[in-house]
Amino acid sequence: MDDSLHNRIAADIRRRILSGDLQVGAAVPSESQLCSQWNASRGPVRQALGALRSEGLIGGGRGKPPVVLRQSISQPFETFMSFSRWVAGIGGTPGQRTLEIARRPADASVADALGLTEGTPVVQLLRLRLIDSRPTMIERTTFIEPVGRLLFDFDCDSGSIYAYLASKGIDPPHANHVIDAVAADTTDSSLLEIPTGAPLLRERRLATSVSGEPVEYSDDRYRPDIVSFSIENTESAHPALARIAERKTAS
Amino acid sequence: MDDSLHNRIAADIRRRILSGDLQVGAAVPSESQLCSQWNASRGPVRQALGALRSEGLIGGGRGKPPVVLRQSISQPFETFMSFSRWVAGIGGTPGQRTLEIARRPADASVADALGLTEGTPVVQLLRLRLIDSRPTMIERTTFIEPVGRLLFDFDCDSGSIYAYLASKGIDPPHANHVIDAVAADTTDSSLLEIPTGAPLLRERRLATSVSGEPVEYSDDRYRPDIVSFSIENTESAHPALARIAERKTAS
């Protein structure tokens, strides 16, 4: 992760917002306060505040003093990337704790999702993902065996699995995501530090190869007080069709 | 809604799947059973099964007997349209029960979302939305007053508010959606017929005019056992960027 001053200033304020130390509506320290706190010039301070504004965490600017707008981070769907890359991209520190990696026969639901016969060996990974050391998401990922076996040679706690697999030539170009909500089970509850039954934002993802073969199926559960998904779209000029004519990239 | 035979056959099977009468993995009645049940030829029966397959509710085809794949309906984000139009598009019958329409001063959170001063009059709508008479979603929508006042001349239970507003020239071309999960409150619980605290899939939407002015802000809560959102995307050939090069429309 980029260790420059503006990133460290932004990371510090982001951590204070996400931890609840700075609540919604609270004033963010002023430019001059931040300059003296960090012994910094205006440049890096303004850059840090600009980053937090573009993440939607703080408002203000154009003369208004900055205040906290919300305490969760949106993950734009316009970008399709790994959790690690996404967190690094918003200036946070991604973390991961691999709880299990196992080769086992596919059960019925996983076999169905991956288009395999029940009992075919697959590689399954259970990982806790963190933002700035805070438990944020649980990943239950199943890889087809020829792909998953590559992970036995990789330290899954060292960084992005997807970057590693891409370096091995495994880079599924297409994914389908289904998003819903589920109640936290006991595993979710203890790892994400929330009560059993608390609502979680779930993304189930099926990634397929160039030839359309399923490669990976994942059930990812996010704490909705930390992460939400955002999408922008634009309607056609012909409302009867209501199809998307153009799509803007979220900032 | 289209009352043709294939639509009625599809609606009947869809209702049986969504109600749990046909569980995941259960066999869907065969073509010949459906032909004799409906006194129909193969054409409409195949058309009905094809529609359910494209919605992802049933599998099979190519010689395999159809079975139920899942009991919730995906709402593709590639199409930006009203709930009514979406439900009609998948061959269901959309319904609505308007519980309240009120002109009142904007509270702090709504004023913030719409960029108004707190206390500015707005028009707020609380509606229960149904698919095939089943409570599916609760809409809490706030319109800026010049738009919302048009609704006092409209029977909000008669159909799509968005089609009506579009006919009046109000047709915001841009929307930002934020998706997360929340626990059902007592209103959600009684209207959606679920326990208090049950997880709901929430979409918060801010629609803006051509000139970028906020027009409408909505907090929509879906039963996740009935509706989920789906997104397909395609990765660029350059994984380091991980931007979308192309976007397929979900079927």
UniProtKB/TrEMBL annotation, chains A, B:
<protein>
    <submittedName>
        <fullName>GntR family transcriptional regulator</fullName>
    </submittedName>
</protein>
<keyword id="KW-0804">Transcription</keyword>
<keyword id="KW-0805">Transcription regulation</keyword>
<dbReference type="InterPro" id="IPR036388">
    <property type="entry name" value="WH-like_DNA-bd_sf"/>
</dbReference>
<dbReference type="Pfam" id="PF07702">
    <property type="entry name" value="UTRA"/>
</dbReference>
<dbReference type="Pfam" id="PF00392">
    <property type="entry name" value="GntR"/>
</dbReference>
<dbReference type="InterPro" id="IPR028978">
    <property type="entry name" value="Chorismate_lyase_/UTRA_dom_sf"/>
</dbReference>
<dbReference type="GO" id="GO:0003677">
    <property type="term" value="F:DNA binding"/>
</dbReference>
<dbReference type="InterPro" id="IPR000524">
    <property type="entry name" value="Tscrpt_reg_HTH_GntR"/>
</dbReference>
<feature type="domain" description="HTH gntR-type">
    <location>
        <begin position="3"/>
        <end position="71"/>
    </location>
</feature>
<dbReference type="InterPro" id="IPR011663">
    <property type="entry name" value="UTRA"/>
</dbReference>
<keyword id="KW-0238">DNA-binding</keyword>
<dbReference type="InterPro" id="IPR050679">
    <property type="entry name" value="Bact_HTH_transcr_reg"/>
</dbReference>
<dbReference type="GO" id="GO:0003700">
    <property type="term" value="F:DNA-binding transcription factor activity"/>
</dbReference>
<dbReference type="InterPro" id="IPR036390">
    <property type="entry name" value="WH_DNA-bd_sf"/>
</dbReference>
